[in-house]
């Protein structure tokens, strides 16, 4: 099985590109959303560690945001609690898809949390800052302070770009993205 890790800035279109590969995707953001909605154990751990913010189940994203905005250490605590469960979910995903040629890992902190393997193929999604900012501002619950806190726990983009095997310049058109994906897949299969 070939593991493709998608890297890039927040709002650069990582999930969009991942979907266009046409292979099974592990989307960490989606899995975190499901944990907040369905996992009482995660809720209890968050409530125990950050009782001021977590008081009702299912976990409300506003509670998470407020905890992060109030204290930078809270983000680290949340990531530590949630990350263990995400790793378990990733293991289940990989076992379930062990017979697939390729799987795509759409995990925002892939390198930061040492989830990637040495043989993974890393693809950096590059987009113009203007396009990224425009897309992020259109998101529901956009919060510039929160965005900056998330950026601080991420490795520099230059580092991620250098670590990558391939770069896709995302201009947010399906044709261009598909062409880049096909080019990369041809090189992988050589």
Please describe what this structure looks like.
The protein has a five-stranded parallel β-sheet, with helices on both faces. It starts with a strand and ends with a helix. It has helices at residues 14-20, 28-38, 40-49, 61-70, 72-96, 129-137, 144-152, 157-163, 174-188; strands at 2-8, 25-27, 102-106, 121-126, 166-169. The protein contains nine helices and five strands. The protein is an alpha/beta fold and 190 residues long. It folds into two domains: 1-24 and 101-190, Rossmann fold, CATH 3.40.50.300; 29-96. Helix 3 runs antiparallel to helix 5 (72-96).
Based on the model shown, name its key terms.
190 residues, alpha/beta, Rossmann fold, 2 domains, 9 helices, 5 strands
